[in-house]
Design brief:
alpha+beta; Alpha-Beta Plaits; 8 helices; 18% strand; elongated
Length: 320
């Protein structure tokens, strides 16, 4: 099931980056690691003295005041382990889109595993016989297994997507008419953010088909109208040849290669115009920026050269 969230935090830039730094308003991960380590050490050191002191004050036979400190030490220790593991994965994985995907899925899996360990360990600290609980959970596990069928499908689909390289973090994809950039791939779900900052969260097993717009170069198209006249077309073509080269020289970071004049795309007799087409290979992330730039610069070049858009004709009908 897909969920959508409106952007309320300034878009993807508000989230943490890949270099161990948090987003705006959050702490860097190395600071979190130090804080969790201090909490773990402090809680572990206070388990016996603070527990004995509080037990002496309350003298309640069913209450062990060392349990809260052991739980705090356990939770802080697991959080410290999670941050440390995340930093290690960041360091050993390549700084590529596939590397980002691996980090995203591994981080998601680690959080699930640590959550399960925290629950079982916490029950053990509180005196629950976890071994007996697990041994007697056969029927319950069977019932839960049927209910978790979609969860298992999500996890398996996520693993196959990782190995098949269907898409990676940073790719622009289209799923169910929703176009956006993949910002996170989890063990169970994928997050896609569109140009407006709206986030779509979709379960991995629900992604039946998609279009990966980043798998190859995208084509930015610019159509320009000139007067329906052979001389006007030849003049416009000469102007475009110079304008296209100037456009490419000034924006090489935007175009993968020089834009190409394709020729007369359409003859519009109604508007008395010949439509000239120019295309350029660009990254999918830059396609709209490139189109806007080409429309502006090439239109202004034709205007300056005296080959602007043909004037609209006013049709007058005499009605008796």
């Amino acid at each position: 099931m897909a969920k959508e969230k409106k952007n309320v935090s300034g878009g993807p830039a508000a989230r943490g980056d890949k270099n161990g730094k948090g987003g705006r308003g959050s702490l860097p991960r190395w600071v979190k690691l130090a804080v969790y380590a201090l909490i773990t050490a402090g809680a572990a050191a206070l388990v016996r003295p603070a527990g004995d002191w509080l037990n002496g004050l309350s003298a309640h036979p069913l209450m062990d005041w060392g349990i809260p400190f052991r739980l705090a030490a356990m939770l802080a220790g697991l959080a410290c382990l999670s941050v440390l593991f995340s930093l290690i994965i960041d360091h050993i994985t390549p700084k590529t889109s596939h590397g980002k995907t691996v980090r995203s899925i591994v981080d998601s899996a680690v959080k699930y595993i640590i959550g399960i360990v925290a629950v079982m360990w916490g029950l053990a600290i509180m005196g629950v016989n976890v071994t007996a609980l697990l041994a007697g959970a056969g029927v319950a596990a069977l019932i839960i297994g049927f209910g978790a069928e979609s969860l298992i499908a999500d996890v398996i689909t996520g693993i196959f997507m990782l190995f098949e390289h269907q898409y990676s973090v940073g790719d622009v994809i289209v799923v169910d008419d929703f176009r956006g950039t993949v910002t996170r791939i989890g063990i169970r779900s994928t997050s896609i953010t569109d140009a407006g900052g709206n986030v779509k969260i979709i379960n991995n097993s629900d992604i039946r088909s998609l279009i990966n717009r980043s798998s190859s170069a995208s084509v930015a198209i610019c159509d320009l109208g000139v007067l329906y006249d052979g001389e006007a077309v030849r003049k416009a073509e000469a102007i475009l040849a110079q304008a296209i080269q100037k456009l490419y020289e000034g924006h090489k970071e935007l175009f993968l290669e020089p834009p190409e004049y394709k020729g007369v795309q359409e003859l519009n007799l109604t508007e008395n115009a010949a439509i000239l087409r120019v295309t350029a290979n660009v990254s999918e992330n830059d396609i709209f920026t490139a189109q806007r730039l080409m429309n502006r610069e090439l239109m202004m070049a034709l205007e300056d050269g005296g080959c602007g858009n043909p004037p609209a004709e006013l049709a007058v009908t005499n009605v008796n």
